[in-house]
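Suppose you are handed only two things: the residues of a chain and a line of SMILES describing adenosine-5'-triphosphate. What would the bound structure be? This form records exactly that question and the answer produced for it, so the two can be stored side by side and reused later without any lookup.

QUESTION INPUTS
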Amino acid sequence: MNEVLLELKNIHKAFGKNKIHQGVSLTLHKGESLGLLGGSGTGKSALLRSIIGLERIDQGEIIFKGERIDHLPENKLTPYRIRISYSFQSGALFDSINVFENIAYPLFEHTIFSYAQIKDRVAEMLKLIDLSGKEELMPSDLSGGMQKRVGMARAMILNPEIILYDEPTAGLDPANTLNVVELMQRLKEKGLASIFVTHDIPSAIMLCDRIVVLHEGKIIFNDTPQKFQNSEDPVVRTFIMSSKD
Ligand SMILES: Nc1ncnc2c1ncn2[C@@H]1O[C@H](COP(=O)(O)OP(=O)(O)OP(=O)(O)O)[C@@H](O)[C@H]1O
Ligand SMILES: [Mg+2]
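ANSWER OUTPUT
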């Protein structure tokens, strides 16, 4: 088995009296894609946010390459937020700046690259997301799927080791969904590990090595996509059935 990149050990998290995670444990290996499924409000986004310290866990450990990171103060988290990139549910582009500036933003923030180097790197990312030459377009000129891909390019530009995708295909039509999933597949082929939070079961099955289901604060399923599809666990079955149109 490949090197363990990320380990969540016995995570507990509550918002007031609302207990969200009640002993969540997970491991993510190098190059692996993990699909994180669960009903609305089960705490999938909160779990991704906890991994990069945007949310603080109440109990448990988050370990990245053998190093515990859940206790780090805010000012020590930046390097980990570069190595573990979070691709937001909304795409979260800046509306008032163009595609080039959106994708280049982390480079201007975190590197001392020259303008020429940044231009090359952005062009390389645009090629990867199949939007070569679109530097000058504004987010409002793009389809929903293109916006998601630009958001993913920005999340990728600092060469992270892990990418956390929060519903990258939500709200997209089938053609745009396929484009986004194909991009995720290309990134996976480059060796990038990911956690893919989604309600889109077919996409998760297509992309992921392993499927995990979060239910009532715990992981109730953790196995291959095939075993997931054939599971006889009543909670898993109900979840699969309720996710169909
Ligand atoms: N910052 C917060 N303060 C208080 N409650 C929160 C906060 N963030 C999330 N919650 C609550 O925690 C629960 C889990 O939220 P979360 O957004 O993680 O769910 P989710 O599984 O991502 O749902 P969805 O599939 O709808 O995106 C919800 O009940 C939500 O209202
Ligand atoms: Mg969510």
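WHAT STANDS OUT: Residues 32-53+76-243 form a domain with the Rossmann fold fold (CATH 3.40.50.300). The radius of gyration is 18 Å.
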